[in-house]
């Protein structure tokens, strides 16, 4: 079985903001500012945009198969959103993997759904709930309680909203690096400054945290042994050392041994 851990980074969908709010005379920065302001007024405080008004600028993944471990960001820094989405679903079509996320049910996948709707991205394997493959009736990517997609945050919280935790805090608690140099609130500013590479690097460290927390989860539910867990961690260390990229080296340096 292949495991496909994923994370997305987003910015305001300013094109939709212009259409919805009649802001044709404003540049991207000010359209974003209006969108945040309207959302804060709507909620009475939080300016976190509704899911359909997020535009995906990075999708980072960890692919783990019986003989392979790899972390990377889909496409190139210049790849349009539609290409990132297509590559994401191509991976599902190719491997039929177990999808793993942190808050993927609550954020990443709904955003992916809306953006796929916008771009017309077909993904029959992902959307199958038993019509094409009877096995998917009992275990598919769409049901909250099926394991083809495991939202680790959701499961650990017992599906109770009041019990959810931040990935950064759980990762740090386990001796993992957690957030490094950026967080989601800074992505829009970095994007406007043209630092898409920095955003992709940040997304890769987030997906590494998620993968390693998932391995710990696999340990406590008895899916892997302590020895297997240790081997998985060593495999990650070995592969990141081979990559020899600054952000991955920094991840290793901030990963406590234990």
Features:
258 residues, Nucleotidyltransferase, domain 5, five-stranded mixed beta sheet, 12 helices, 5 strands
Describe this structure as you would to a colleague.
By secondary structure, the chain is α/β, with parallel strands linked by helices. It has a single domain (3-253), classed as Nucleotidyltransferase, domain 5 (2-Layer Sandwich), CATH 3.30.420. It contains 12 helices and 5 strands. The protein has helices at 14-21, 28-43, 81-95, 104-119, 124-127, 135-138, 152-156, 167-173, 187-192, 196-220, 226-243, 246-253, and strands spanning 3-12, 54-65, 68-73, 98-101, 149-151. A 5-stranded mixed β-sheet has the order 3-2-1-4-5, with helices on both faces. Strand 2 and strand 3 form a beta hairpin. Helix 1 (14-21) crosses helix 2 and helix 8 packs across helix 10 (196-220). The longest helix has 25 residues, at 196-220. The radius of gyration is 19 Å and the shape is globular. The mean pLDDT is 95.
Task: Quickly describe the structure.
The chain is α/β, with parallel strands linked by helices. It has helices at residues 14-21, 28-43, 81-95, 104-119, 124-127, 135-138, 152-156, 167-173, 187-192, 196-220, 226-243, 246-253; strands spanning 3-12, 54-65, 68-73, 98-101, 149-151. The chain has one domain (3-253): Nucleotidyltransferase, domain 5, CATH 3.30.420.10.
